[in-house]
Amino acid sequence: MSNLANRFIDVVFNLSNHRYDAAITLLSTLIDRTAKDTYQIKEVGVRFRKLIDDNADFILWYSTEGALQFSSVIIGDKTIGTVFYKIIRNAEIHEAELRDIEFVTTGVLISADTIPIQINVSFIYGIFFILCYLPVNRNHVPKGIWLKYNAREISLDEIIGVGKDMALNRIRISFFGD
Fold it and tell me: Are 79 and 73 in contact (CB under 8 A)?
């Protein structure tokens, strides 16, 4: 099994055990790699933010259980990709810690203007699903893994490499019962 496959397994383990800080660390490296493989952009920060921003509509849709759909997400004057990259990813990579972050299950998606910064757990799951559905990761996401969140389960096999629209439909059925 590849190192990337092991990272996907580690993310599932940490999400399942409510170790969201560890999951974000792993997701940050997976986002970096996925963005590198997806875009022909040399600058890490640019491609990292682009991957998140290009899929922000899915994150918002998932985080609101399908209630809201937008083409982009702006927090203050920053995109969601910029907030994630500058506040979360850079703190993890450059300081090896997430300081002043609280993981919540209701209310905000991500609040960059408060201390502690609040990150909704569904935001983390949304990012993980993006990495699973992108075709570039088709051969990196291990088969046979189930992920549970809020008493709902989905087999990652249903969304591996299928793209955003197909993943959205399959998650809608598995998680939201539509």
Answer: yes
Strands of the chain, DSSP E: 74-75, 78-79, 101-104, 110-111, 117-120, 146-149, 152-155
pLDDT of amino acid 72: 47
Q: Is-cis flag, bond preceding 116, omega within 30?
A: yes
Residues 3, 153: Cα–Cα separation, whole Å = 25
C-alpha distances in Å from residue 144, one per residue of 9, 10, 61, 138, 154: 11, 14, 25, 13, 10
CA distance 172 to 169: 5
| Rounded Cα gap, residues 22 and 103, in angstroms | 12
Question: Can you tell me which residue has the tokens 């997430």?
Answer: 98
Residues of the domain holding 134:
3-176
Coil vs helix vs strand at 78: strand
Query: For the whole model, what pTM was predicted?
Result: 0.88
Enter the tokens of residue 178: 């539509």
The tally of domains found in the chain comes to 1
Residue with tokens 């969140």: 149
- Find where tokens 């088969």 sit: 143
Distance CA 129, CA 127 (A): 5
In the chain, which stretches have pLDDT less than 50? 70-72
